[in-house]
Design a protein that fits this description.
Blueprint: H1 6-11, E1 17-18, H2 23-26, E2 28-29, E3 32-33, H3 36-43, E4 50-55, E5 61-66, E6 71-81, E7 84-95, H4 104-118, E8 123-131, H5 138-144, H6 153-159, H7 165-168, H8 173-177, H9 180-189, E9 191-198, H10 204-216
Parallel strand pairs: 1-4, 7-8
Antiparallel strand pairs: 2-3, 4-5, 5-6, 6-7, 8-9
Helix pairs in contact: 3-4
C-alpha cells in the first residue's frame, strides 16, 4: 500500500467528533452502519472537525461539518431515492482564507469519493462556484478533479475558433481536461456551473481525478 503524502497523513485520520449519542444504531446507509470513521470519510472532514448528522423529513441524511481552525462552512446531503441513498450533494465547502491553496479541498474530495463509492452511492453533485479572478476556486478545482458538465453554446463558439483540433471539437468539461491545451483554456476562460461526478469504477471521472492527484503529489 502506498504511503500517504505528508498533508494527508497530518490532517485526515478520522479524528472527528459526531454530535449524536447513538450514531452506530441511528444511521444505516445502503446496508452500511455509519460509524465515526465513515462519517469522517464520507464528508472528507479533516481531523478536529465536529459534525451534526440529521435525517430530514424527506429521509435524506444532512451532515453539517464545522472546524475551529480550517473550515468556514461545510455541508453534505446524502439524498435518498427509490433505490436507496444514491447521490451526495456537496452543498458547500469554504476553507478559511489562511488555509486555502494548501490542497486541503482536493484531499477532502478524493477521500469522500472513495468512501461514497464503498457505500454504494452512485454520484456526487456540486456547484463549481466562481470564475476566473474570483475568490472562489470551485470552477477550476472541481473540474480538474473529474466533475463533468456540458459546455454552453458561448464556450463552444469560443473553442471553435481555437487552433488546436481537440479544443475546436470539445463539448464537455472532460473533453477539455483530457489535454493540456484544454486545461490551459479552462484556466483562462472557465466559470462556475453545476457539475456531477460518476462514482462507477470504470468512469472517466476517476481517470481525470487520479491524473490530477498524481500531478499534485496527493496520495490518500
Amino acid at each position: 500500500m502506498s504511503k500517504r503524502d505528508a498533508l494527508t497523513a497530518a490532517l485526515f485520520n478520522c479524528q472527528v467528533k459526531v454530535l449524536h449519542e447513538s450514531t452506530a444504531t441511528q444511521f444505516l446507509l445502503n446496508g452500511h452502519v455509519l460509524d465515526t470513521a465513515a462519517f469522517a470519510k464520507l464528508t472528507g472532514a479533516p481531523d478536529g472537525s465536529y459534525m451534526l448528522p440529521v435525517i430530514t423529513p424527506g429521509g435524506d441524511l444532512e451532515i453539517e461539518v464545522a472546524h475551529d481552525a480550517i473550515i468556514e462552512t461545510m455541508q453534505r446531503t446524502v439524498q435518498q431515492g427509490a433505490n436507496g441513498f444514491q447521490l451526495v450533494s456537496n452543498d458547500i465547502l469554504v476553507i478559511k482564507k489562511e488555509f486555502r491553496g494548501l490542497g486541503i479541498a482536493i484531499r477532502s474530495f478524493a477521500i469522500e469519493a472513495r468512501e461514497a463509492q464503498r457505500l454504494g452511492i452512485a454520484k456526487i453533485k456540486a456547484l463549481a462556484a466562481g470564475k476566473v479572478g474570483d475568490e472562489f476556486s470551485g470552477w477550476y478545482l472541481w473540474v480538474r478533479a473529474g466533475f463533468q458538465a456540458d459546455l454552453d453554446a458561448a464556450e463552444r463558439a469560443l473553442l471553435a475558433r481555437e487552433a488546436a483540433p481537440a479544443l475546436r471539437t470539445a463539448q464537455t468539461l472532460h473533453d477539455l481536461m483530457r489535454t493540456q491545451e484544454g486545461v490551459n483554456w479552462w484556466r483562462s476562460h472557465g466559470r462556475g456551473r453545476q457539475v456531477e461526478f460518476d462514482l462507477a469504477p470504470a468512469s472517466a471521472h476517476w481517470d481525470i481525478l487520479n491524473l490530477y492527484l498524481a500531478e499534485k503529489g496527493v496520495i490518500i
